Description:
The complex is a heterodimer. By secondary structure, chain A is an alpha+beta fold. Chain A has helices spanning 2-22, 25-28, 33-36, 47-69, 92-98, 121-146, 172-180, 198-203, 269-281, 317-329, 346-375, 377-399, 406-435, 440-472, 475-509; strands spanning 30-31, 38-45, 76-80, 83-86, 106-108, 115-119, 152-156, 161-167, 185-195, 213-219, 232-238, 243-244, 248-255, 261-267, 287-291, 294-297, 308-312, 336-344, 403-404. Chain A has three domains: 2-35 and 345-509, Multidrug efflux transporter AcrB transmembrane fold; 47-125, 2-Layer Sandwich (Hypothetical Protein, Haloacid Dehalogenase-like Hydrolase, Chain: A, domain 2), CATH 3.30.1240; 181-340, Gyrase A, domain 2 (2-Layer Sandwich), CATH 3.30.1360.200. In chain A, strands 9, 10, 11, 12, 15 and 16 form a six-stranded antiparallel β-sheet that branches. Chain A has a four-stranded antiparallel β-sheet with strand order 7-8-2-18. Chain A has a four-stranded antiparallel β-sheet with strand order 3-4-6-5. The model of chain A is unreliable at 222-228 (pLDDT under 50). At the A-B interface, β18, α11, α13, α14 and α15 of A face β4, α5, α7, α9 and α10 of B. β18 (336-344) of chain A pairs antiparallel with β4 of chain B.
Amino acid sequence: MKNLNYRVVTILVVVALAVxxxxxxxxxxxxxxxxxxxxxxxxxxxxxxxLKLETETxxxxxxxxxxxxxxxxxxxxxxxxxxxxxxxxxxDQAFRGAAVEPDAVFNRGSGAGRYTYTxxxxxxxxxxxxxxxQALQTIERRVNELGVAEPIVARQGGQDQILVQLPGVSxxxxxxxxxxxxxxxxxxxxxxxxxxxxxxxxxxxxxxxPPDMLIVPGSADSGAAAGGAPATMFYVVRRASVxxxxxxxxxxxxxxxxxxxxxxxxxxxDGARKFGTATEQNIGRQLAIILDSRVFxxxxxxxxxxxxxxxSGAFTQQEAQDLSLVLRSGALPASLTYLEExxxxxxxxxxxxxxxxxxxxxxxxxxxxxxxxxxxxxxxNALVSITVNLVLLLxxxxxxxxxxxxxxxxxxxxxxxxxxxxxVLIFERIKEELGLAKxxxxxxxxxxDRVWWTIVDTHVxxxxxxxxxxQFGTGPIRGFALTLVIGLLSNxxxxxxxxxxxxxxxLGRRHAQALSI
Amino acid sequence: xxxFHNANYNFIKWRWHAIIASMLVxxxxxxxxxxxxxPLGIDFSGGTYIVVKFEQSVNEEQVRSAVSSxxxxxxxxxxxxxxxxxxxIRLPQTATAEQGTSLEQGALQVQQALQGAGLxxxxxxxxxxxxxxxxxxxxxxxIWATLASxxxxxxxxxxxxxxxxxxxxxxxxxHDVFVxxxxxxxxxxxxxxxxxAAILTITGxxxxxxxxxxxxxxENMRSMRKDSLETVVNTxxxxxxxxxxxxxxxxxxxxxxxxxxxxxxxxxxSFTMLVGVISGTYSTVFIASAIAIILSQKRSKAxxxxxxAEARPGRKTKGAKAS
Lengths: 517, 323
């Protein structure tokens, strides 16, 4: 009898814990995108970009080093994202002495006077991995600044895929643009320009643009843009940036001298020192403010500027705000493409909830009515274990922070079905044993004992399927599988432990001659 | 109340009929899939789904002509009931769909076409765009999940019972998957992630049912040592018959509720479950035990006397730890 009391207490404690875990359900149970509305995105990080950037940077640095060391060379250029070539070397010894830096990252092909450098495969992999991690962190910062509640930003599937879920977001296009914008800010001195076409810009250098210069498109100075679409202009700028987005400390929306929306930025200590020196030495020259390889404006440096700057262009207030956001969160190391997009409007989500709940309650009621009619008072036993099962399931989902999705809801219904099956299995066996003219107590014991291993076998095999689903499945299917895993475990507890305890509490009081079953 | 009092039907006698009937259904389904192709939803094939809700009712034909200028095989159909005023538009995967922002190009075209066609005001209530990379990825994962779970379950049954039983159970499970696919094709449902989840659930359910009978067979083999395996299996099927039908019935009821009231988003899922529950129950009674018997007989003819009652040792009922 004491043993029985312990069991009753255990059940009550477990139920109380579960209720505590999910109460109040509105706050504790997370709803998935399909129920709440929002957007689900899968992006691919174009990691090739990161390799290309590394190769180009190495080429530029090597050019600098060789020039400073006085080593003669002819052509030096990147031939692909992971390969560059240097030609026309007259003094191999001097070249090898000076060009040590690329050897850490690149394999140098053999040869004399001409060398091909290929990126080491392990370094390439490492760079790809870093690019994805950086992109992930940048997206996380941006999503957090968007102010979305409970966003998910995580790696998914293949090495270069990132999953982003934004519940409750209504302006999907804006969110997508903010996530995807590279936001690479560069400040470079203008050599010549603006020209009205790229060709004109080349002609100014007799079609032989010096390697340390670059042609960048942009719009004509915003101050002049009074009505009409601004024509595209081309600037010849120095390849080397004075400062870049990495030197930013902050960026915020502001107004320019014409009271139009603009983005003000301030530089960190390091950036401010570089910027101060550079502007001091170049007073009177134009400084191009380049965002994602496009000149936004090219103001003339009037005096030494140390740590403040402003980007003006034909921004709307919203654009200025979004640009500040992406600048604050830093540039992406590589461009992104969208692989998958699923948007659920809030009204559809609400409809789904209503339909799902209706169906769930309807199905549950049908089952309960059947159990009460068919098993009479013993049906009450099933009713209690179904209810306890539901409570435990909700509690466990809240405790593990699981998300309730539409397929998850289906998993709920299925779990209840399996719980009922366990009850039926036991009750039918008890009936059978009663038919063999056993006493009520002996029949109940035999029913539970004989069926125990059947329940173990069925639940273990279902558990195997559910766990594999959890492992291999994606998105909504995982929600379904998780519900099922939790449900299978709580089933064993309710259909066997709780149900048997109830039988014993009832039968323990008196010497039952008959069982209402 | 009891559905069957001492049921005693000779199910095993009908085993060849059942196997032939099932083969016919599967063959018909296979023929249909071969001619029409497996109806892959955009989750697996890639493409675009847009669900639009109109302020006033429109018919599908109006929407169809509005989007007719967009290239590719489009599907326009009512989503839910006519009173919902919702239309689903499906666009196929386009070859260029992965460069930059053009993933959503089709969706934008639809939006523009609808705006320009003079239809009532509308709202896009959901938009799913799946690129080819993800589609292929999901396809691969779906197949792996199904195969891996089947293999693991076969292994488990093989260890807990005997290998021939495991084969019987897995044949029954494959039977259910094929029958379900055949019905999905026949009724024009698409294979989506949710439907795959339902199929996996069905495999679990079917195995579940089969194990209940096999467990009974194992138990009876100890008490009915003199009877042939055929008799033991038939007795076991009969003894568990009311449980089988009650469980199938209650599951069917709750899935039916899901099908009727669960809304459009769960329609494919609940349809699959409905078919699967029926097929699963049928295959448990007729297919799984029949295969197990046929295989056991072949083996025992080659080896020794019928059914040496290979019940695993140490598995007496006193092992029960229910309390």
